[in-house]
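Thread: Newbie trying to understand structure tokens

Hi all, I'm a second-year student working on a class project, and my supervisor (Dr. K.) asked me to get a predicted structure for one chain before our next meeting. I've only ever worked with sequences, so writing a 3D structure as a token string is new to me. If someone could post the tokens and maybe explain what I'm looking at, I'd be very grateful. Here's the chain:
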Amino acid sequence: MTLHSDTVTIPLTAIGLEDTAFVITFGRSCEDLARAIERAGLINPPVLARLPGQEAYRIVCGFLRIQALRQLGFTDIPARVLQPGLRDAQILELALCDNISHRQLNSVEQAGAVKRLLNYVPETKVIEYWLPLLGLSPSAKALESCLRIAGLEQEIKQALAAGAISGHSAVELAVLSAEDRLALFRLFSSVHLSASKQAEIIETCRDLALRDGTDIQKVLSSEEIAAILAAPTPNPSHKAEQIRSFLRRCRFPRLTRKEELFSALAKILPHAGGVRLLPPQSFEGDTYRLEIAFSRPETLADAAQTVQALAQDARLRSLFGDGR
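---
Reply by user tm_fold:
Sure, no problem. This is what the structure looks like when written as tokens:
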């Protein structure tokens, strides 16, 4: 579709900044753009659509440009105004094509575009034609992920656009209740977690809530987590690891107890030299192995004493459920 427009001067007050029906941009600052316009002027005027019978206009392309111009104190701006008669579906297509022609949309922008397109375009066409143009795989799964993201609260979308939470985490959060979703989001906002650790905590909390017949927000409202978050240490990564460990102990109490006992035993062995205690894979089963490395008989004798002491250690007995 060819764009037909006239370039005219429009008062900024006549442009509806709250009307975002065709605005694709999300989570982007106009600061750099404002500096560029201040230095070189407005090179590419925004595109507007006039509201029928009114001296008022909707933004089609150039939302950030208009914000930057307003920030710079402009009262009137040059703009390209679409000729009347275009349907909303055609205007949305123009807005999308303008955006994807010069940049990669972030996850929230992709989601917003998909949701808008479904108001005008059959789902099959969105999947087959528009998803690849938006940088997504042409699949029903990708479409569903976009719709989940589009339904998230504004603050979570902002965090996703800023990279504070991962796309996978956002999609997983979207299927939870609003209370559980926001409880997890507040936790992610308080500590530093990688994408994989965010996914781990979501899964662990979901399992705990299901096992205990409760909800995630109650899992996260424990006194232990509150104490970790309130601790004076300024290191959010350290707090994140403490919370992960606590949740994992709650989810797998027997396994984590075995891991802790094993770690305590392993720490005493290097001092003897040449003796290694090896656990069963993933601590599943009760068959442990010992490795002994020696270069002379005396070293072997020392290792034998270490093995004897290990056999009598109460922590080793506890690994097998024998606390005697």
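A couple of things are worth pointing out once you decode it. Strands lie at 5-11, 47-50, 57-61, 76-82, 275-278, 289-292. The mean pLDDT is 88. Feel free to ask follow-ups in this thread.
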